[in-house]
Each structure stands twice: as C-alpha cells, then as structure tokens.
Specification:
The complex is a heterodimer of chains A (about 60) and B (about 400). Chain A is α+β, with helices and mostly antiparallel strands and about 60 residues long. In chain A, about 20% of the residues lie in helices and about 20% in strands. Classes of the chains: A alpha+beta (about 60), B alpha+beta (about 400). Chains A and B meet through helix 1 of A and loops of B.
Chain lengths: ~60, ~400
C-alpha cells in the first residue's frame, strides 16, 4: 500500500497525525507530512483511518 | 419542539428562536430532510445545510467570499485578518500564522492550561455546586489566550470586559443603535490596547506571539501596524467565545446524559473522541456567513452575486449522507469529518488550541468531579448566535477529599 498527501488540498486540520501518528506527521505549518510512503501491512488499517478522517479528502491511499 | 421551525411552506428557518439554539438538532434534521436551501428569518438570506453543499462552499472562496463589512456586529474599523480576507492574500497571512497555532506549538501551553483548569476547580469543588459558564467556561479560554499572547493573567477582567463589549454589549435589548455605538467604542479600546503592546514589544522583544508579529516578514517586508492590529482583533474575538461556548455545550450534554459521562470517566482515553463527537453534535458555531462572488445554482436556488449566504454547519454535521447514525452520539465514531472548525482555506486557525483546551478541561474536570448533574428544577439557558450556555448550574457531592491539582 502506498500513501500520499495532496498538498493543494491539505489545510492542516491535523486529524491524520492525531489519529495515526505512526504514518502521518506535521510540517512547520501543521500540514500533513507522510512519514511512511510505503505502508507495511500491519499499519494499513491506520492508513485508512487517517484517510477516512481527512475533511479535505487530501490523503490518497493506493492499494497494491 | 416547535413544529413550525422551519416552516415547510415558506422554507423559512427561524435562526433566532431560543428553542432552536437550545435544541437545534431536531430542527436541523428537518431542514436537511426538506429544504436543500432554506431561507433565514433575517432578510430571507439563503441557507445551505447539506454536508456536501457546505463543504463545497467552504472550499471555494472564489465563489463564496469571506470579505464582508462586519463593523456593526463586531466594532471593527477594517476586516479582521485572516478571517475576513480571501485567498490569495489570506493564504500569505496563514503561512506566517499557522506555525504559531500548530499542534506542536500549542502542546507547549498544555501544562499551563491544565494548571489553570485545576485552579478553577479548586475554587468550587468543596462547594458542591457552580454556575459552569461564569466559574469555568468563561475564564479558562481567556487564561489560555493570555498565556498564548504572553500577557499577564491580571488582564483577565479587562479582556472579558472587551470581549463582552463586542459580543454582548450591555445596552437595552433590541436597541441596535446603542449596541453599535458600544461596539465601536469597545473596538477602539481593543485597537488602542494592542497598539500600545506593539510599541512595548518592539522596544523590548520577548518570546511570544506579539513579538513574533512585530518581527515576522511577509513578502520581504515587516507587517504594518494596522495589519498586526487586525490580526490581534481576530485572536481576541475568535479565541474566547467559541471555546467558552463549546465547553458549555459539552458539559451541558454530559450533565444531562450520565451514561455517556460514565464512559469517559471510566475510560479517559475516550476524551479526544468525545471532544470531536460533541463538536459535531453540538456545533456551537452553528452558522457562518459568506458573500456570493459569482452567480451559482444550488438545487432550485439561484445565488446571485453580492448575496449574503449562510452555511448551516450545525445541519451539515448531522447529515446522514456523511455520518452513519447521524442522530446517535458515539464517542468512538470511527469516521468523524465534522465541520465545526470549518474547512477549506479558512479552517479555524485556533483549532489545535481549542482541541487542546477542550481535552485538558474535560480530562481534569472528570478526574476530579466525575459525578454531577444539572441543578434540580433549573434549566440551562443558551444564547442565540454562537451557542454559549449562559446559565449552567451544576451540582455534585462535595467530599472535602477531592484529588487536588497535579
């Protein structure tokens, strides 16, 4: 599984790094920074949780 | 419940009905069911209510502008920055302000906020009762604001007076002229206060936001004096009342629903989820205004250029298309993309600060006063507009041995 963020859409709600801090971090402005672009199988559920809670639909999960 | 609100024949929603602001959920559910675009009782302003419509409007400032004259309501001489300006100018200000309100930055304030919360609890815990608004919900966000701005806590009374002078001017009800005059006079005092503070921080820089505003560069130049004032005005108005209202709405809910309260007492790890779910369910800032910049059609309604439009966040947050079991308050809701902090470029600048304050407050309160109820025979009173619970009498068993500050 691959994880990406669309920086044009992210406005820094911070839901992703609150809910799944092992995969999502924050940059200087508090916008999303992907910590692991390739998601290990045991963290796939967390990746989907972060994606599902983004109010801007800014997180892209590509199932492999 | 008042079955005539909204009126289904005319599509009019009475947004100032006290019954509505006290219990908005059933009314908002009816709006969602019947009226894609309702009309406000005030000048028949169109109201968007569906999650999909509201989030779309919030994300498109080129259609739904935030630039409007709020002088009469807010006592401002100029637009507040960055709330009342549009991208791309707004984006440049957010770039320099976001870092000061990031989660990382507000975490540094958390121990101090918890200490303030505990000091407020110390004053009331042995009494076995309090009026939650005056004793807790009003002072805590103001103390947080003073900490953030690097101002002495002794300014608490002054700042509450300034805030109230704008939001609830002490004039006869319905005397709009007197209210506007009071607001403009208070607004002048707010500008003057921060004007002096700019000089003080320029002369003696410190490690605080005020100093930062005097030093930071935007497009290769320092901020002008009026720009700093327009930012500070927003900090004062945005940071105090909204958190006060959310604390009151959340505690009123928890007082009236003991089985839900017990869940967070037994498992404090549920508090962050409870904060989010209560933001969704209560949506203290229920309505936000925008001005139409390009004609656009929503359902059957044509929104013309220059029209004022209201976005009913309180209804969008109950939309079953977005929230399964939307009428069920579930602190463990797995997907909760509520819009209580807005969305798009104007996402609430203080959202991370607000979340930290709300969690700290609910955790400390329930650790020390886990069992409480609304005082028998009393009814909480909720303000129109931003839903502040102006009167929330709570009672509990006072024991004398009640855990003390950490």
């Amino acid at each position: 599984m691959k994880l990406r963020v669309d920086p044009e859409r992210c406005v820094g709600h911070g839901r992703c790094y609150e809910l799944a801090p092992r995969l999502f971090g924050e940059d200087e402005r508090g916008h999303c920074r992907i910590l692991r672009e390739t998601v290990p199988p045991e963290l796939e559920k967390l990746a989907r949780l972060g994606q599902a809670n983004c109010p801007e639909d800014a997180i892209i999960v590509e199932e492999s | 419940m008042n079955d005539d609100n909204p009126c289904l024949e005319t599509g009019v929603l009475n947004i100032i009905d006290p019954e509505y602001t006290a219990h908005p959920q059933p009314v908002n559910a009816r709006v969602l069911e019947h009226l894609r675009v309702a009309k406000s009782i005030a000048m028949h302003t169109p109201i968007l209510s569906r999650y999909e419509d509201v989030v779309w409007a919030l994300r498109h400032p080129e259609i739904f502008s935030s630039e409007m004259d709020m002088k009469v309501l807010l006592g401002t001489e100029r637009p507040m920055i960055p709330q009342q300006i549009d991208p791309p100018q707004q984006t440049r200000f957010r770039k320099i302000l976001d870092a000061q309100f990031s989660r990382k930055r507000v975490q540094e304030l958390e121990p101090e906020i918890r200490r303030h919360a505990n000091e407020l609890i110390d004053r009331i815990i042995d009494r076995g009762e309090c009026e939650f608004d005056a004793d807790f919900a009003v002072p805590l966000p103001c103390q947080a604001f003073l900490s953030l701005m690097g101002l002495p806590q002794e300014e608490l009374e002054l700042f509450l007076e300034l805030k109230n002078g704008i939001i609830r001017p002490p004039v006869p009800p319905m005397d709009m002229e007197a209210a506007t005059e009071w607001r403009l006079r208070t607004g002048k005092r707010i500008y003057d206060y921060f004007d002096r503070l700019i000089d003080e921080r320029r002369a003696e820089p410190r490690d605080d936001i005020m100093t930062y505003l005097t030093q930071v560069e935007l497009d290769g130049r320092k901020l002008g004096r009026t720009e700093i004032l327009d930012i500070c005005y927003l900090f004062l108005l945005g940071g105090l009342d909204t958190v006060t209202a959310t604390l009151g709405c959340s505690m009123a809910y928890l007082a009236a629903n003991p089985e839900q309260r017990r869940r967070i007492v037994e498992d404090p790890a549920l508090v962050p989820g409870a904060v989010e779910e209560l933001l969704r369910w209560e949506t203290p800032v229920m309505l936000v205004p925008r001005v139409v910049k390009q004609e656009v059609t929503v359902g059957d309604a044509v929104l013309r250029e220059g029209m004022l439009v209201n976005l009913l966040i309180g209804a969008a947050n109950l939309d079953a298309e977005e929230f399964p079991d939307a009428q069920c308050v579930d602190f463990a809701r797995e997907r909760n993309r509520h819009l209580a902090f807005g969305a798009g470029p104007h996402r609430c600048l203080g959202s991370h600060l607000a979340r930290m304050e709300l969690r700290a407050a609910l955790e400390e309160w329930h650790r020390r006063i886990p069992d409480y109820a609304i005082k028998p025979g009393e009814t909480p009173r909720v303000s129109p507009g931003i839903r502040e619970v102006l009167y929330l009498p709570l009672v509990w068993q006072a024991s004398g041995r009640s855990g003390g500050a950490r």
